[in-house]
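Worked example

This section walks through a single chain of length 546. The input is the sequence exactly as stored; nothing has been trimmed or padded.
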Amino acid sequence: MERIVARIAMHTDYLFGVGGANIEDLYDAVQRAETSITGIVAKHEFGAATMADGYARATNRLGVVAATSGGGALNLIAALGESFDSRVPLLALVGQPPILLEGRGAFQDTSGGPGRLDAERVFGAVSKYCVKLTRAEDVDAVLDQAVTAALSGGPAVVLLPKDVQQSSVPVSVPAVADVVEAAHPGVVASSRLADAADLVSAGRGPVVIIAGPEVARQDARAELKVFADAVDAAVVVTPGAKDAFPNRHPRFAGVTGVMGHPHVPDLIGGARLCVLAGASMSMTDRVGLDDALTSCSRVLHIGVEPPFVRAHARLSGALGRTLLDLAALTAGVVEPQLMQRKDLHKLIVPPAAGPGVRYRDAVTVLAAHLERGADVIADAGNTGAAVVHHLPIPDNGRFLIALGMGGMGYAFGAGIGSALGRGRRTFVIAGDGAYFMHGHEVHTAVEYQVPVTFVVFNNNAHAMCVTREQLFYSGDYTFNRFGQAHIGAAVAAMFPHLPAYSTATVDEFDTALDDSRDASGPVFIELICDPDEIPPFTTFLKELSA
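Given that input, the structure is written out below as tokens.
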């Protein structure tokens, strides 16, 4: 296990996980290691894996999670599914019963024998690489392959039988030259770049760039800005890529898709060229845009993931390098459009008359308290829709949201991983439904004094499901409203030294944010909201107007 710790320490500062009999040797090795890696114990394996996911997304490094066998291992599946769909570099080290006991009644046997789960098949469905380490002497080769697979974009899983973990192998830290780096996409051929430059330069009229998650994954934000300046483009972002371009920059023109801004289809439909920069345009990203993309005379896609829409040309290579090369070839050729920043048109939602604070008002107050470089993690649901639509991400800040699988509760763990990885305050915004699923990772933040401000929009409901009951079904029944829960008071009682607040008005929310500004560790704020408020979600608003 010392060999494993020495090698993963080259790619990460943290090991996130939950202990157990078949993984405790790994934590023991972390404790004794001479490297700087820190072991973090979460409350649940889903939370641990989302911590590793958030760390990886925020830092562009490898996230590492550890779990024991049996139920602990299976608890990783949902989180790994999100990382797989969102192409997040994550390494999962999963303990297994001793090989010598497989097929002999071993507790938590997942060897795939008669009547037993097959861990390799289960984890193979949510990973790019999955292997069981059966010989200690293979540890270096297996870890190298796993790390390479993960850094190319997606989880890798190494299954570690207990007896193999405890085998004696001489420890030797590889030289720097032996470290496996990410399998980055290659350089685009000059002839293809020239053809793409001709496409970019042809014709007259505005250029629109749709920036997607690959911009963040390849850390190509600066290169995107250079290219946007060179072609004088407006930049819109997909819902999961709000931090791909500065939200207060004059070129920023809003968000696409189901939580996006209503003027974006006209912007794209009227463009002479639309560049999809690291945007594959899933349904979440392109709701309302199919006609606009079809009518746009030229669509250029740049990125590794193939697009779900028609493109007249594709460049599949290193995104940042390709953007810089295109900028060099087109600078001074494209006629400037003298773009002026315009206010973003917001979706108009029906007035709400229920208790608490409206989503837009809450987000406006929060935005005023976010300092430059602050990171924001949003959970899925009505709360996430409000954040995506209304909240400008601070300059140099990161924005994460789980839109791959949309698993509720993702933000609590991811916020902790992001804050530890970036070493700065992170704001987690989630609903009460997400809190009841995985919100007790707040305890992890308290244990390690992680600088996270948890903001829970409490409407005592799975509010998006309530909205769907009302809009798509009869609305005369509900399975999704809860009895009243005083979450802020409960958290304050559990953690007496944690700054915890219960707020029901804009002024109370503003005061709580102001009072907790100088906190060094975690903060918890409950904000009472209305379960019947319709969020800025295009699908719902169209149903209302039908």
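What to look for: Residues 173-183 have pLDDT under 50 and may be disordered.
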